[in-house]
Amino acid sequence: MNNRINKVFPSFDSFSSEFSPRDRLIDVFSSCFSFHSTNRKNKDSIKAYICKLNETTLQVSADSKSVVIVSDMSIKNQVTTLISHVHIHDSPVIKTIHHTINIMSTEAELFAIRYNINQATHLTNINQIIIIIDSIHAAKRIFDLSSHFYQIQVLSISSELREFFIQDHNNSIKFWNCLSCYK
Q: Do the Cβ atoms of 134 and 83 come closer than 8 Å?
């Protein structure tokens, strides 16, 4: 009998090495990633945050070793549309559009993040990735070690980031929350 079918795959195994305390991204590479968001109830805080995001984006756009990815998602009539814009210094903006039906928003956001990280980590000489998304909670799921429906996406993203961080100890990824209404 073929025993390959009786095996537990790492993405479904909570005892997988990727989820053990000594190998988790959050423990091993804690200085390589950050999350930025603002208090949505305070208008002054939002203005200062948007100014800081604009300033950061301009600085990163001038750096040939950085990539800025802006990702947005909308759902209408059970059709999810994901749009990603990738900007690298002195290169035209790369725009990608994905459509899918009957998918949960967190799963769609994780797919967009996974796709964007995959694109960015395969570019040569990139050491900083800035991802601007409208749902920071989805990005935080990457580092959430509890068992949930999205572990296969999380494991794939973690694997990509692990390789990216191992290439150079100065490599980093920053997630910025920016709601579509902030334009």
A: no
What pLDDT does residue 25 have? 77
Residue 2 covered by a domain: no
CATH code where residue 101 lies: 3.30.420
Look at the chain and report how many structural domains it folds into: 1
Is residue 90 in some structural domain? yes
**Backbone phi and psi for residue 85, each to the nearest 5 degrees, phi listed first:** -120, 125
pLDDT at residue 5 is higher than 60:
no
Report the C-alpha gap between 18 and 15 in whole angstroms: 8
Q: Which domain holds residue 152?
A: 8-182
